[in-house]
Amino acid sequence: MFNLLPRHSIKMMLAGILAVSLTACASGAPKPKEAAAPKSNDAPAAAAEASKYPEKPIVVVAPSGAGGGWDMTARTIAKVLTETKAVGKPITVENKPGGGGAVFLAEYASGKKDDYKLFVSSPPILINNLKKEGNSPFGYKNTTPLAQLTKDFGAIAVSANSKYNDLKSLLNDLKADPTKLTIAGGSAPGSMDHLVSILPAYKYGIDPKKIKYVSYDGGGEALTALLGGNVDVLGTDASSLDQYVKAGKIKVLAVASAQRLGGSLKDVPTMKEQGVDAEFNIWRGIFGPKDMSADAKKYWDDNLKKLNDNDVWKKELQANNWESDFKSSAEFNTFLGQQEKLIQDMLTALGMQK
To answer: Would residue 130 be called left, alpha or beta, if left means φ above 0 and alpha means ψ between -120 and 50 degrees?
Structure first.
């Protein structure tokens, strides 16, 4: 039949068939099996395979000396993640004291981004950025907040042989002579322990600027100073005092919580119970570098939520007198913005704002 057609007509027919075939392919004709696109339910698996984080050991930094709240928090996080095998890489804790966390944060925020170096912090990351003297140009916005894990409360303590047995008698003496007693804390002037220390005095009508405050690099050093008789009073976080209360080495005069705490501090009255309208919530959270990679951020979003739900972690909370107060990365970010405003107002009231 084709022999009856001129040669140029045959060529035209073949060209037309080829054109139709190409158009059909372009408009969605089935492709060979080996080139078929993956099904939509395969996408999560493909994404998981693409992420290799973590590929090396993790470091969790406590921006203070050993023995304080940051150190205990960092070591507890590392301990539980290791014991539960939640992270398939070694986790170590480093102490980087100085300026109530300001020295480390300056180095961390201005240095090379490292998704494998995280750190714990609490209100000082806000306070150091907002206070007038010795302030830090860096704050939480120079990091990636990953999760809030716990909350603690401020406490006022004295040595076991102190003459003071309640907050009111201590404040009465301070009111008569604000320079009579030396108060210690594990952070710089104007930072968290300082605010914990002077807040009840301020609420009691005492000029906070006249109170003698001595700062140490971490709650552990401040406790040592109290036990050694180098200072008269300690302002710190309640949870760090547990072992010293049990050992009979100190007396806790008051806690800055709305209600009494449990454990070894169950008999300690709140500041409000003693007529001093003061509360101080010490939240603690974990942070990563600013502009953290999406893979690393998602990894910690998932694993820190699992940490919070783990029974091993819950036992550690109880052992340390910590209260669980988990906030995801997004929730934590919003919370920090609110806390920044509250602390700015507190510093302004004390004349310590930037």
So the answer is: alpha
